[in-house]
Write a structure and sequence with these properties.
Elements lengths: L13 E5 L6 H10 L3 E5 L2 H6 L2 E4 L5 H10 L2 H11 L3 E4 L1 H4 L4 E2 L13 E5 L10 E6 L1 E2 L14 E6 L1 E5 L5 E7 L2 E9 L2 E4 L7 H13 L3
Parallel strand pairs: 1-2, 1-3, 3-4, 4-13, 5-6
Antiparallel strand pairs: 6-10, 7-9, 8-11, 11-12, 12-13
Length: about 220
């Protein structure tokens, strides 16, 4: 699949990419620039709250992510931003920390913006953990983030844990890995999140990011 570069649109909102010290931020920034977005990496909590939209990317371990969010002041900045009703996107561990907790870090509370827990894939013969590489998205219901995607679009994943939402109402896409079908995209109010990496998912990922830049919850 080739990379599509969209023409810049200066009317798009200012998007803050949350820097809390442990993410691969530049690839997200480059992908957003490729779709014409006005996006910038920010490490100042006040800058997050002033942005028109925000993205929490991530890679790494649940407890380290939550510790970094708290130490940098980004935990409260994210909560404050969420209360504004402006668009918010979580990516990979940025999806997982939106939930209440994770088997990866027992006793460590997540942000709790979404109800549910994060669980580890169970070992199965012939199934690799982490789940790494391209896999299909089965769309469950219409969602602005996924507009324009084919019914079984492919996206790029790297993870050993997955979110298990308490409420299936916000489930917008699922993916199967072995015998486990997990939430690969969720949506509640002004919050959308993907377990996969849009910035690594080529044409499909760029379409998703373009949709996010144009979304008005």
């Amino acid at each position: 699949m080739g990379i599509v570069v969209f023409h810049p649109n200066r009317s798009l909102p200012l998007i803050a990419i949350v820097d809390y010290g442990m993410s691969n931020l530049r690839s997200v920034e480059r992908a957003l620039h490729a779709v014409g977005a006005a996006a910038t990496i920010v490490s100042d909590p006040d800058a997050v709250e002033k942005a028109d939209a925000a993205i929490l990317p991530g890679q790494g371990e649940f407890s380290h992510c939550m510790q970094s969010l708290r130490e940098t002041g980004m935990e409260e900045a994210i909560r404050s931003f969420w209360r504004t009703g402006k668009p918010f996107l979580g990516i990979c561990i940025g999806l997982q920390v939106l939930f209440q907790g994770s088997q990866e870090a027992p006793g460590i509370a997540g942000l709790g913006l979404l109800a549910g827990q994060v669980r580890r894939f169970s070992p199965e013969p012939g199934i690799k953990i982490p789940h790494m590489g391209w896999n299909s998205l089965e769309l469950c219901q219409p969602c602005p983030l996924l507009d324009g995607l084919p019914p079984s679009a492919y996206a790029y994943f790297v993870h050993s844990y997955f979110a298990d939402p308490d409420d299936s109402v916000g489930l917008v896409a699922t993916t199967a890995h072995g015998s486990t079908t997990f939430a690969s995209a969720v949506w509640k109010d002004n919050v959308v999140a993907t377990q996969f990496h849009p910035e690594k998912s080529q044409r499909v990922g760029l379409q998703i990011l373009k949709n996010f830049t144009e979304w008005k919850p």
